Hints:
There is one protein chain. This protein has helices at about 25-40, 65-75, 90-100, 125-135, 165-185, 190; strands at about 10-15, 40-45, 75-85, 90, 110-115, 140, 145-150. By secondary structure, it is of the alpha/beta class. The protein has one domain: Flavodoxin domain (Rossmann fold), CATH 3.40.50.360. It is globular, with a radius of gyration of 16 Å. The termini are far apart.
Amino acid sequence: MSQKVTKHSLSVAVVSTSMRPSSRSRILAEQIAVQIKSAGGHSQFIDLALTPLPMYHGGELTTEQAEIVHSINQAEALVFCVGVYNAGVNASAHNLMHWLLDSSGPKHKPFFLGVSAGSLSSLFSTEAFSRSLMYEINAVQVVPPCFVTEDSELTGDTGLSSGIAPRIEQAVRVLLAFGYASRDLRASDNYNNA
């Protein structure tokens, strides 16, 4: 089903950083993209497993890889869905960050993280990734990470469990509200003259 996009729809890049097609973080990303569309936003699902980026080297990307980086940079809001392994977000998420830092896009865009981790204690390992987004590209984290620790929280292609669905719905509402406010701020004279 295609989504009707108006010029007023907020563009949100939803990025799955997992290299495994059946990972919890990828399923979470797919469900967040659905929630964004249901709430009236325009979500662009970006799956790094389908078009992986090379390890950062500062050189040229293929056209398809460059389009991914450009799409993320031009989005008005961001959702990164990451897996946590060995007390850190997955390597492809860090690698993506390097490519994003070497390019440009709107500043002060809102974001949140969708996280798949083995336990709640792993959640703290996402802080460095969030700080990089905040300090390096001036993104604004609008809610704490939305996390899943068990497969039972995700019901495959059919959606989210009753335990996580309300958290995702709230995070999406807040993300869109901040996204529209950020769009208005960037268009104002006060922002441009600061």
